[in-house]
Each structure stands twice: as C-alpha cells, then as structure tokens.
Specification:
The chain is α/β, with parallel strands linked by helices. It is built from 20 helices and seven strands. It has a five-stranded parallel beta sheet, with helices on both faces.
C-alpha cells in the first residue's frame, strides 16, 4: 500500500499533535473540553494542511466516541442521512458519548445538504465537526452555524514545521533507518506555505528521489528537485497567498493594469471566484472607504453577481470591479478609526454609557435619570446640537480623521462647521 508520509505519521493523541497551541495547548480553548469528553459541535476553519482532520480524529479517540466521516466533495444528502442513521444506532441520545460526524470541506455542501444536518445536530444524535478552508460566515448556513462553535486553525509556524520534519525522520517506518541530515530547511519551509501536509509531501518526494540512504537536505537540492513539479498556480500553497497579495496591493496602489494581470493569473489557475470577490469587498471598505462609498456597493454587487453566474462569465464582472477599485481615490480613515477605537476599548474597559444618552423604556428608568438632559438634534438649528456622546473618561477623543480626498474633505468641512475645534484633524 503506497500510503503517503503525512498519513503514516498522523498523530493519534493530543500529546503528539503539533501546533494550534491556542486551541489544544495547556491553556487552549479546546483542551479542557477534550479532556472532559464534553464536545460541542464545531467548525474548524483554516488553511489546508493545518491539522483539521487530525484534530477531529483525536477528539473522537480521546473522548471515546464513534467516529463517522464524510467528504463534501463526494457525498450527497442520501449519504448524510445514512451516516446519521448509523450514528443514532451506535450512540446514546443526549449523552456526552454521542457519535462524532466529521465532514471535510463542509463549505462545498449545498444549502439542502447542510439543512439535512440540522435535525441530527439539534437533537443530539451526532456531534458535528466540520472542516473548511473558507470563511464559514459565508459558506455555512446561519441555522447550522448558530449550532456550532467556530475555531480558527493557523498555518504552521517555522518551529512547528521543523518539528514535523524531525518527527518524520525519527518515527516513520520508511525513513527512520535512513541517514537524513536537515542541513538547510528554508526552501522546504517556504515551499510549504505553512501547510504541514504539503511540507511532508515535498520532503517525501526529495527523499524518494535519492538512491542512497545517506541524504543531505539543502536549499539547492530541494529547489532543483521540486521546481520541476511545481504547478503554475497552486490554490492551496504559497502562490495562492503571494498572488492575492500582489492583486490587493496593485488595487491599493491604484494600478488597474497590474490588478488585471494578477486577476488573470488567479482565474487561469482556477481560483475560487468567491474568494477573489470577497477580498475586493473587504478592500473596498478598508482601502477606499468614504473616499468613494460607491466602491463598496459595486464590490458587494460583484460578490453577489459572480456567486450567481460563476465562471467563465464571472471574469468580466471581476475585471470591471478590479479596475474600478484600482481607479478609485483611496482612504483608510474608517479602517484606522475602528482600529483606534477598539484599542481604546481594550485600554479603558467597559466605560459607563452617559446617563443622558441611555435608553429609558420604563418609568423607573426615567425616574433614575436615564435620558435626562439629552438634546434632540432635530429640535435645533441645522439639525445639530453640540453635545458629548462619549463617556466622560474619554471625552473629546478623536477616532475618525477624514482622508485627503474630495469626498472626505467635504465630510471634514461639514464636521468642522458643526464641532468647531472639537475634532482634532
């Protein structure tokens, strides 16, 4: 049996699991739940090769539960119902030992397929663990998402990847008798793009290409052997992240020609149309914002349109949006404002809402002074009254500073005409 290296050394216990300390480390969000065997339904969201499937299997083993698995690529509603029926028969209802149903690439399930899971999850027939490389907010139906805890898995760090290589060399039945020296690892790590599975696949390719049992791994040897096997565009590897980065930075830099080129690279490589549209939707607010509010409207319409029509026609809509965004004036003022405001919240904690702007739906609250002293803007000239809406402790703080572009200059002039010297522009 030609079992890949990544499968041969797949961890079986939590102690052997590498990375994701924020989830399964000593203070990890999942550590105690796994040890206690009380597992809610989960969605694991993260890049390929970060241990989503492995973690699901370990959870099932550690909590001593039956484990059923489906792939969203090859399974339909009928398959889901058959597995749920088996799970119902193998586990006790409403107990901590409910079977685990693991669905790989759950984002590929249609709405009807996801709907078919709802009853089983809600009634406790199964504990669902879904794995996805896509944002579950967009790809998992709200009813199912509300019944699951979402945990983000991060790409493997440098030390994690090196530990993975050393474990493979020391423990794999086909490698441990070879004399393998990791003289240089930079090329291996770079080509892996934080994907543990890809790292092991590349490593195995290099080892298998050697005729001697004495193997020295260098950057040069890795690049010489791997470059021949590298595809033009790898949707799950380094090129995926490098090219989307080049695309976004070209738009941010107001270069529509470069933006279209990198867009074409992604389209020709088969990149997910929604992934491209989603990134432009984020950019429209983060990098253009109030300098051209229409950019966000167009980007949102683009996302909806390409989701409906798909390739090949979606490329036209993507190109229209990319060139429009690249040709728009830029401002990150609103993005900077929310970052600064969040930092202030973290620094100052839960400051009390001033009494004057509290809601007073009952007579008791009104008697306690809720809403007292509030000045209703529409009762004043120009629908404005000089009033402090921030808590006393941060009174007068400025978060939003309009950018240097025609639209936001008009906003700046408006704010200054109202607030006089209060806004620190």
């Amino acid at each position: 049996m030609n079992e890949p290296l990544a499968e041969r050394i797949r961890p079986k216990t939590l102690e052997d699991y590498i990375s994701q300390e924020h989830l399964v480390g000593e203070q990890g969000a999942l550590t105690n739940q796994i040890k206690n065997g009380v597992i809610p339904s989960l969605i694991f969201w993260g890049p390929p090769g970060t241990g989503k499937t492995t973690l699901a299997q370990i959870i099932a083993t550690e909590s001593q539960r039956p484990f059923y698995t489906l792939s969203a690529i090859s399974s339909g509603v009928k398959d889901v119902r058959e597995v749920i029926e088996k799970a119902k028969q193998s586990g006790g209802l409403f107990t901590s030992k409910n079977p685990i149903l693991f669905i790989d690439e759950i984002h590929r399930f249609s709405k009807s397929q996801q709907d078919s899971l709802l009853g089983a999850v809600e009634k406790g027939w199964v504990t669902l663990i879904g794995a996805t490389t896509e944002n579950p907010s967009f790809e998992v139906i709200p009813a199912l998402l509300s019944r699951c805890q979402v945990y983000v898995l991060k790409p493997f760090g440098k030390e994690d990847l090196i530990s993975l290589l050393k474990r493979a060399i020391a423990t794999d039945r086909l490698l441990k008798d070879k004399k393998i020296e990791l003289q240089e690892t930079e090329a291996l790590l770079r080509l892996s793009g934080g994907d543990g599975r890809k790292l092991l696949n590349i490593f195995e390719l290099i080892v298998n290409s050697e005729t001697s049992d004495s193997i020295i791994i260098t950057n040069e040897s890795v690049l010489n052997k791997v470059q021949k096997n590298t595809v033009l565009y790898d949707k799950t590897g380094e090129q995926h992240y490098d090219i989307i980065s080049a695309f976004i930075k070209s738009i941010r830099g107001s270069d529509p020609n470069a933006a279209v080129y990198w867009l074409a690279r992604m389209i020709e490589g088969g990149e997910d149309v929604k992934f491209i549209a989603r990134r432009m939707l984020i950019l429209a607010s983060e990098d253009i914002g109030n300098a051209n509010p229409t950019a966000l409207v167009l980007a949102n319409t683009t996302f909806q349109a390409v989701t409906t029509i798909g390739y090949p026609e979606a490329r036209i809509v993507l190109s229209q949006c990319a060139t429009y965004l690249a040709s728009s004036p830029k401002s990150n003022a609103s993005y900077a404002a929310i970052k600064e405001a969040q930092q202030k919240v973290r620094e100052t904690g839960d400051l009390s809402v001033p009494m004057a702007i509290r809601n007073a739906p009952t007579q008791l609250m009104e008697d306690l002074g809720y809403g007292k002293g509030y000045a209703y803007a529409h009762d004043h000239e120009n629908n404005f009254v000089d009033f402090e809406f921030l808590p006393d402790e941060i009174s007068g703080t400025t978060f939003y500073r309009p950018g240097n572009n025609p639209r936001e200059k008009a906003m700046k002039d408006f704010l200054k005409s109202r607030w006089k010297e209060k806004y620190d522009f």
